[in-house]
Amino acid sequence: MNTATILDLIATRHAAATEACDDLREQIAELNAELAAAESEIADLQTTRQTLVKLTHDEVTATNPRITSEPYQQILSVFDPDGSTMRTKDVCHALGIGIATEETMSIRAKLKRMVNRGILTETQRGLFTLTSKPT
């Protein structure tokens, strides 16, 4: 084998190795972009979760009895101060929302939170009414 042939083989191997490195760098760049997007989503979700926990805590479990959240105000507005009772589905109907499981579960959870805060009373299982003296 002569020197020119060996140099050609080296040049060919060099070109192949350079191309492989370029391909790997491109894959790394794509993976870094995907990683950055996933990390950004994680950060957004953490912020959203913290905000939701804070809002839920402020609206539902604070010692201040006022309910400032619009959904809770809407629920309160459907109850008559005369002491009549309502079931969860009645509240859903009064609010003009559906009575599918998701909707009723969400409203039931809010009603239970309001019972825990002393705003509503559950006179019997599943029957809610305004407390006689709202706290």
Model description:
Residues 14-55 form a coiled coil. Keywords: Coiled coil. The protein is mainly alpha-helical and 135 residues long. It folds into two domains: 1-62; 67-130, Arc Repressor Mutant, subunit A, CATH 1.10.10. It is built from four helices and two strands; from the N terminus they run ααααββ. A two-stranded antiparallel sheet has the order 1-2. The radius of gyration is 31 Å and the shape is rod-shaped.
Please name the defining characteristics of this protein.
135 residues, mainly alpha, Arc Repressor Mutant, subunit A, 2 domains, 4 helices, 2 strands, 7% strand
Strand line-up of the largest beta sheet:
1-2
| Share of β-strand residues | 5-15%
Termini separation comes to 98 Å
Q: Return the CATH class of the largest domain.
A: Mainly Alpha
CATH superfamily of the largest domain: Winged helix-like DNA-binding domain superfamily/Winged helix DNA-binding domain
Shape: rod-shaped
Helix-strand topology string: HHHHEE
At the fold tier of CATH, the topology name of the largest domain is Arc Repressor Mutant, subunit A
CATH architecture label of the largest domain: Orthogonal Bundle
- Which spans have pLDDT < 50 for at least 5 consecutive residues? 60-64
